[in-house]
Specification:
This protein is mainly alpha-helical. It is built from 4 helices and 3 strands. It has a domain at about 210-280: Fusion Protein Consisting Of Minor Coat Protein, Glycine Rich Linker, Tola, And A His Tag, Chain: A, Domain 2.
């Protein structure tokens, strides 16, 4: 009996609770006699003590609860056994996999060592070949440097010859440029001399016909003259007045009287210098 209680403690607890509930129902259902006050006439005794019968359905429900709890306990125990069995199966499968992995690891280790041995042998052969190739490379490099040195020396000699020739060419070009500049300067000087001579002729022609106004003194005016190739005056304009209208007018009249002005002939190529010229007249 005690062994059954230890195995199923919840069932024992539920049974005790059911008995306690049954006793409570019996107590509540019993009809107690009423207390009689002094001087109160006595009532007729009850014909019988009324005891309410125990509700069998309630008892059945309690028993059903106990059975359901027992079934849940058994179901939980079954699930626990199944879980334990699954765990044992999982651990066994894990051990099997570990053994298989260990076997694979050992095989891989064996292959790795064999591969390393083959790799060491291959490296040794490669090192031997590398040293032989290095020796050949050094010999080829020595021959290449000697050839490069020979070619560099020949190139240096050729470049030196070319440099000397270039220096001679530059010196000749410099002399040519100096002579060209000298000739150009001489031509410019000659052209400027001719321009100055014709400018003097034009100024003299105008001055010869210039009649100064009375009292003109310390006056100066600048005019712009536009000429045609035949010396005729196309336009005269005062560009900087003297401030004296009579003085400015005398200059304009002198230019008009002097036309056609003396200009260089076309074959000299100097007329472009006189198409438009500026002259300053002062008194």
């Amino acid at each position: 009996m005690w062994q059954a209680i230890r195995q199923h403690p919840w069932a024992a607890v539920l049974a005790v609770l059911a008995h306690v509930a049954l006793i409570a129902i019996l107590v509540v259902s019993f009809t107690w006699p009423e207390a009689k006050a002094p001087g109160t006439p006595a009532k007729a005794p009850p014909e019988a003590v009324s005891v309410t019968a125990v509700d069998e359905r309630q008892v059945e429900r309690e028993l059903e609860k106990i059975k359901a709890a027992e079934r849940r306990r058994q179901e939980a125990a079954r699930k626990a056994r199944e879980a334990r069995q699954r765990e044992e199966k999982r651990l066994a499968e894990l051990r099997r996999k570990r053994q298989l992995e260990e076997k694979k690891r050992k095989e891989a280790e064996r292959k790795r060592k064999a591969k390393e041995a083959a790799e060491r042998k291959r490296r040794a052969e490669a090192e031997r070949k590398r040293r032989l190739e290095e020796q050949k490379r050094r010999e080829a490099e020595r021959k290449r440097r000697e050839e490069e040195k020979r070619l560099a020396e020949r190139k240096r000699q050729e470049e030196e010859k070319a440099r000397q020739a270039e220096i001679a060419r530059q010196e000749a070009e410099l002399q040519r440029q100096i002579e060209a500049r000298r000739q150009a300067a001489a031509r410019r000087a000659a052209r400027q001399k001719a321009v100055d001579e014709w400018s003097t002729k034009i100024r003299q022609a105008i001055t010869n016909r210039w009649v100064f106004p009375p009292g003109a003194k310390n006056l100066q005016t600048e005019v712009r003259i536009r000429l045609l190739p035949d010396g005729d005056v196309l336009d005269v304009k005062i560009i900087r007045s003297s401030g004296d209208v009579a003085f400015d007018g005398s200059v304009e009249r002198a230019i008009s009287k002097a036309k056609p002005l003396p200009v260089p002939p076309p074959e000299t190529g100097l007329f472009d210098e006189f198409r438009e010229m500026r002259l300053v007249f002062s008194r």
